[in-house]
Amino acid sequence: MTRAVRPYGSWPSPISPERLVTGAASPGEVAVDGDDVWWSEARPAEGGRTALVRRRRDGTREEVLGDRPAPDDRTWNARTALLEYGGGAWCVESGVVTFAQWDDQRLHRLVADDPDAVPTPLTPEPASPRGLRYGDLVALDRGWVLAVREAHPGEAGAPADAGEPVHQVVAVPTDGSAVDDPDRVRVLVSGPDFLASPRPGPARLAWVRWDHPRMPWDGTELCVAGLGRDDRGAPVLRDEGAVVAGGPEEAVVQPEWGPDGTLWFCSDARDGWWNLHRIADAGGAGPDAAPEVVAPVDAEVGGARWVAGMRWFAPLADGRLLVTVTGHGATGVGLVTPGPPGTGSESPLARLALELAGAPVTLVSHLAAGPGPTQAWSWPAPDGPRPRRCCSTCRRGPPPPPPTGAGAGGPCPPSAPSTWPPPAGPAPSARRATSGSGPTTSPCPSPSPSRARAAAPPTASSTGRPAPPRWRPTANGRPCW
Question: Which region ranges are annotated with the description Disordered (predicted)?
Fold first, then answer.
């Protein structure tokens, strides 16, 4: 066999982009509606369309949008271009789903339990194509949906000479009245360069804001204002609101209201790690509204908000919280049992039997996505206390044939977390592979003889701040996670 050395990046690979995505379907955002589990599913074979899938209590699955008639032969695609990165493109309550349609970015509504129903628009046509974008959706009640709206120059709330889009928190009526009357879309919050995570609570609204040049992992502010209704029943803010947490050097993400009115959120104020915090009286916005860290740990309970709708914890009906904890190259799912106000640092954090090691994790409302193939789990399951897998990264249809010819090597061994610098022995190394197409380096580490529980800590280059100390909690001499 003749070997030839080619310039880097020019060697012919037997693995094509088509081979990587043929038939693939990956779960994305996940939500719980009663006993049903919903998730979005990216489908490269369908032009990158984002489908909505529902899993019933009895285990049956159905695609919610795929077979519904659509005008102009369009394809229903639940995806938003908010901030270009997207996220939070849909929300569901009592079987009624509201979603952003990709091609025009307008919000649509569908009664999923009606087999003859079709999605109907909720928001007006923008002045320019895709000029009004909606994301970070959350249902306020059956009559209204809250969203972050991105108005491009020339659209409502954004002057034609505006140098960049304007962000607003808006309330959209679900009866479709705003299609012909744009004023029915009520602007609740405007002004900051960026707005995120509108979360309605008992007579209150929480949201996150920040301004240029900060990014959401640099510094954000958590705000709370009174939420009421006007004489027509439309949502209104009763005051200007107040900042209850955050600042230029503190990154707050994911505000959530607990069943008792406690405001929960993740913040990195303590020592650089995102940890769970609470405000017992967020409506006061005064001295009694001081944030308190709960179940602190030298690991990440939270993360960088790259897209809208990201979640790292979920308040449960019994007052506990389901959380993801990431540290030392592994991610686990845990339960926090909070004590009374003032005892947050003493609140226990117990590990669930479900471990998600060595892979990114998404946690939304009783669900987690896990190792290797991305997976979604429901907990507790309707038929018992053990977690139940709802969906997984899969291929819809038969897998493609294995690659042949030069360069068609064997499969890479599964990756495993490792420590750097290593405690002893040789440093981790990449495996060098050669083929008829010339030398290449494959980033496939040698299989580890045992599961490692440590990884390189975050660095200043990846987080924008000095790296905090490593996380090494133990219980009875054994790692907790």
Answer: 1-20, 401-481
**Positions of E strands within 309-409:** 313-315, 321-327, 330-336, 349-357, 363-364, 367-368, 375-378, 388-392, 394-395
Considering only CA atoms, which of 5, 359, 308 is closest in space to residue 167?
A: 308
- Contact, 374 vs 27, CB < 8 A? yes
Give yes or no for a contact between 373 and 356, defined as CB atoms under 8 angstroms apart. Answer: no
The CA dihedral of 190, 192, 195, 199, to the nearest 10 degrees, is -60
pLDDT (tens digit per residue) in 402-433: 555 544 445 555 555 554 455 555 444 433 33
Spatial separation of the C-alpha atoms in residues 218 and 463, rounded to whole Å: 8
Q: Does the pTM exceed 0.70?
A: yes
Phi, psi torsion values for 461, nearest 5 degrees: -70, -25
Extract the residue ranges of the chain whose pLDDT is less than 70: 1, 23, 282-288, 351-481
In whole angstroms, give the CA distance from residue 78 to residue 71. Answer: 15
Give 8's contacts (C-beta < 8 A, 6+ positions apart): none
Q: How far apart are CA 314 and CA 213, in angstroms?
A: 30
Instruction: Give the strand pairing for 166-173 and 186-190.
Output: antiparallel
DSSP 186: E
Do the beta carbons of residue 468 and residue 298 sit within 8 Å? yes
Residue pair 91/200 in contact by the 8 Å Cβ criterion: no
pLDDT score for 407: 47
Half-sphere exposure of 251 (CA within 13 A, CB side): 21
107-139 pLDDT, tens digit per residue, is 999 999 999 999 999 999 999 999 999 999 999
Buried b (16+ CB within 10 A) or exposed e, 196-226: bbbbbbeebbbbbbbeeebebbbbbbbbbbe
CA 254-89-138 angle, to 5 degrees, is 50
Q: Edge to edge, what strands does the sheet with 292-293 contain? A: 252-257, 263-267, 275-279, 292-293
